[in-house]
């Protein structure tokens, strides 16, 4: 529609939006803080309405070729004894068509499809001034620009949100857990499978996916604030080692591998809750607007759906205010349903006390021997699929 649009953040949400808008004739600039496209990362699921979005974007078939192909999941106790095993889809809460892939692979796919946009790396919005008929933007690099619309798709700690809506403290809700993920050697010799260890207040898991030699170690534990924001990587590694001190299974070896990992994600599990996602000509998208936390398993799907809905609304209305109102009206119930999954799921994933760990492993051992266990476990993930489909997508505009 020939608008000039700045998208802050070249993640899933920003790239998907850039593809949709540039296909519709808008002049889109994506400014991404990272110095270049990022490969790898952890695995994410795309489900429900988000699959229809990928399909309408013409990317679903290629996304399927990038599947992790994780085919089995096992839960073990402190001595590594198997409590239960199940197929990979049941373990990951997926149904037939859902696609699990590496975040980096999805980024690459979206980035290639958004070639019609201008992509600037290694820069970031520093100032924003909405003048009513446009937004004046100053970048950290010293560059300036003027746009019809600015979209903050810059993640949990969105700089756009900070500039246009106020500081993180107003919108971030701490769920009381931390997550850490690192690429590590495949010590367990896993072949497209994942193994989860359940300890009191802490879960550790390792998975290996198709087409990769290494493995990912993931840690999810209950904790009050650790003050990690001011710490460097070594400081975060120390906090992780302290949180898992004395744990069994392969945890000590996994921790020992973390310092050599090329990457370490370390974050409190938080949600973003806001009453409004837009102000004037600035609008938020994806995690920046409504992070549901990794425990929801739905952040990527929400980012894709949000990008599609926002692009459709902007294509349908000349008036940006009407478009942003439409976007919010369509997305609100979907976001509420999916955000509710985060706190509920994490309580199932992290079990509180030693006694509760024993009880839940005993229950899993019984379940493991029951015929039709996969069906029973799949029924437990029904709320995820209900939430994943809780939106009516607008018609495809281009
Ligand atoms: C361990 C883990 C597991 C997860 N598992 C799943 C899962 O199974 N299923 C699922 O659906 N989701 C999952 N998620 C969540 C999912 O990754 C996010 O919800 C999703 O990536 C949100 O996309 P986004 O584009 O809004 O934000 P992001 O992916 O965070 O992208 C934001 C982008 O903005 C950039 N950026 C940040 N600040 C600035 C700035 N100031 N200027 C410019 N650019 C900036 C960042 O570098 C990044 O590229 C998981 C997350 C984690 C951490």
Overview of the molecule:
The protein is α/β, with parallel strands linked by helices and 398 residues long. It has 2 domains: 4-67 and 100-171 and 272-344 and 383-388, FAD/NAD(P)-binding domain; 173-270 and 350-370, 2-Layer Sandwich (D-Amino Acid Oxidase, Chain A, domain 2), CATH 3.30.9. The protein is built from 15 helices and 18 strands. It has helices at 12-23, 49-56, 60-65, 88-91, 103-113, 159-164, 233-243, 251-257, 287-290, 299-316, 320-339, 341-349, 354-369, 373-380, 382-388, and strands at 4-8, 27-32, 43-46, 72-76, 82-87, 99-102, 118-121, 125-130, 135-139, 144-147, 149-152, 172-184, 193-199, 202-208, 215-222, 264-272, 278-279, 282-284. The strands form 4 sheets. It has a 7-stranded mixed sheet with strand order 5-4-13-14-15-12-16, sandwiched between helices. It has a 6-stranded mixed sheet with strand order 7-2-1-11-18-17. The protein has a 3-stranded antiparallel sheet with strand order 8-9-10. A hairpin with a 2-residue loop joins strand 17 and strand 18 (282-284). Helix 1 (12-23) runs parallel beside helix 5 (103-113), helix 1 runs parallel beside helix 10 (299-316) and helix 2 packs across helix 10 (299-316). The mean pLDDT is 94. It binds flavin-adenine dinucleotide. Flavin-adenine dinucleotide (FAD) is lined by residues 8-14, 31-34, 42, 44-45, 103, 124-125, 153-155, 159, 179, 181, 265, 286-287, 294, 297-301, 303.
């Amino acid at each position: 529609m020939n608008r000039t649009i700045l998208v802050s953040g070249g993640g899933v949400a920003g790239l998907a939006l850039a593809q949709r808008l540039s296909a519709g004739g808008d002049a889109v600039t994506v400014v991404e803080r990272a110095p270049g496209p990022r490969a790898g990362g952890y695995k994410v699921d795309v489900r429900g309405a988000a699959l229809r979005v990928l399909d309408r974007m013409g990317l679903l078939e290629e996304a399927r070729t990038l599947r992790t192909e994780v085919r089995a999941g096992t839960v073990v106790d402190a001595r590594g004894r198997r409590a239960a095993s199940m197929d990979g889809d049941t373990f990951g809460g997926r149904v037939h068509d859902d696609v699990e892939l590496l975040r980096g692979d999805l980024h690459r796919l979206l980035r290639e499809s958004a070639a019609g946009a201008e992509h600037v790396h290694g820069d970031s919005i520093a100032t924003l001034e909405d003048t009513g008929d446009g937004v004046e933007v100053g970048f950290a690099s010293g560059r300036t620009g003027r746009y019809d619309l600015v979209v903050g798709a810059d993640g949990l700690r969105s700089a756009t949100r900070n500039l246009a809506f106020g500081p993180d403290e107003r919108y971030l809700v701490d769920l009381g857990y931390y997550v850490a993920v690192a690429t590590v050697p495949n010590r367990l010799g896993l072949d497209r499978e994942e193994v989860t260890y359940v300890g009191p207040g802490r879960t550790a898991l390792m998975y290996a996916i198709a087409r990769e030699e290494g493995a990912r170690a993931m840690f999810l534990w209950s904790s009050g604030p650790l003050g990690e924001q001011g710490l460097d990587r070594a400081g975060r590694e120390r906090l992780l080692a302290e949180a898992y001190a004395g744990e069994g299974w392969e945890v000590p070896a996994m921790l020992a591998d973390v310092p050599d990992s090329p990457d370490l994600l370390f974050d409190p599990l938080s949600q973003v809750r806001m009453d409004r996602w837009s102000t004037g000509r600035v609008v938020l998208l994806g995690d920046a607007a409504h992070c549901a936390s990794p425990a929801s398993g739905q952040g990527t799907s929400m980012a894709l759906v949000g990008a599609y809905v926002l692009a459709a609304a902007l294509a349908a209305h000349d008036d940006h205010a009407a478009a942003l109102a439409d976007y919010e009206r369509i997305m609100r119930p979907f976001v509420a349903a999916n955000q509710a999954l985060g706190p509920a799921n994490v309580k199932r994933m992290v079990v509180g006390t030693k006694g509760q760990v024993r009880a839940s492993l005993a229950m899993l051992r019984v379940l493991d021997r029951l015929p039709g266990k996969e069906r029973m476990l799949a029924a437990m993930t029904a709320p995820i699929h209900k939430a994943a489909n809780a939106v009516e997508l607008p018609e495809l505009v281009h």
